[in-house]
Request: fold
Amino acid sequence: MTQGLNRIMWSTIGLLLAALWGLPFLYSVWTAFHDEIYSANFVWNAPLTLENFFEAWQAAPFALYFLNTVILITIVLVANLILCTLVAYAFVRYRFRWAGFLFALIMVQLLVSPEILIVENYLTLSKIGMIDTILGIALPYLTSAFGIFLLRQTFLTVPVSLDEAAQIEGAGACRVLWNIYVPLAKPVYLAYALVSISFHWNNFLWPLIVTNSPEVRPVTVGLSVFATVESGVEWSLVNAATLMTTAPLIIAFIIFQRQFVANFMRAGIK
Amino acid sequence: MNKRLPFGLAMIMLVIPCLLLVAFTHYPALRALLNSFWNNASSRRPSKFVGVENYQTLLEDDRLVQVMLNSTFYALGTIPLAIGLAIGMALLVNAKLPGTSLMRLSFFMPTMLPMIAVANIWLFFYAPGIGLASQILGVFGLPPINFLGSTETSLISMMFVAVWKEAGLFMIFYLAALQAVPENLKDAARLEGAGPVRIFFNIVLPLLRPTTIFVAVNALINAFRLVDHVIVMTRGGPNNSSALLLYYVYEVTFSQRDFAYGATLTVLMVCLLGVLAAVQYWVLNRKAHYQ
Reply:
């Protein structure tokens, strides 16, 4: 009996905290779906409207921004998957001088991430003439220490005997990697891809510095330009634009909630 | 036994990927160190070696003192609060109570949002008069607070934003750790007559230590790395009261176009980050291990 009461009490506390936690977001949702006059004024039967979303979509080239973000994420993700796989495999299955030192050197990037080094990376980028390009935004992120670390840990768990058996059968290094290691690491690739996509979808400071023109702006920078340039912009429009730009991630999260959480956890513990 | 890495393969597998990494991590760090001893070039004269002049400026920079105090306060406030909340949330979500999926959704949602969207949402939440925060104050008959516009409250308001965004992510890591705590340990303690509070502090919490190290180091890096909300919400103001170190670097370099001083500040930041991470690791790792 007390057990049951206890559970109800804790459940109530949890739901209250969850409601409190959701409040800022729900307030923004309320405003985005209502006319401007209701934005600070709660009437339970206020008419819902999608007008704000249409208006915001028209007011700035959001379709272009979305496309830029997708291109950016694709470049980074493809490069990451290929390059990190190669480096991790080299560390796991080959012997070479300075291996430990090189690995430590790579791991430095976990601490000193590219965001910290915006000043010098901007100078490098302008020297090679890549300012204001999507590839320029992607460049510092093409190899990821986190990805290398994650894949190395995973590859280490693959039994050496499996590798040797394949080699005796006459498979080269490429085939061993592709047919044995990559399939066994599939869940880790998925986890890494999810983390990486959400990181680059959300990244703001570096793209803000690198881009000047709308043609290359990712969604985050586009949103900030939209929300600040016109000082007279209505709150309902800003909130609609904010939700619109994050909608793909939110919808993906609600659909894949379980896998997302499980994969984030895997990425964390390994 | 592993084979020796042939030269050609090494070029493809190691050298090219690592060159990319070095070019945007180690090279800029060293480059910042070099540039911090030179002044800015102008159209009339090239930059010249000035020795430690930039570092002298750094020591006499009153704004930097304020920024460092802000950053310290920000890190000391947000990291423990986010970790504490994350542990609480993980316990709630892990308890298999009714409504768990709703709790998990609400706690984790802010983590999925870009910081820039979070900043917009909170900008509206804090907005004087129209925002929910001032409306709630109004309901209780309290005078309105200009959360972002006054020097006393701007930094604390930013800290709430950061905690709101981060706690859900840390919750996930604790959730994973909680599920790895062996049931039989808890059963044994229960047989010995330990209550849930005792079980938490004497069994669960010590087992969470590796997670706490991981989360704390990550939170520290994020406290340095993430200043998107400062750019959008306050631009460091009013009167520098909410400026954080990376924001200051951004402003000095890209608004005032002072690249030499920006490089000097970068050196300071990299050194700080290294020292802090080492200290944090040492402090948290020094205590006894239970696993």
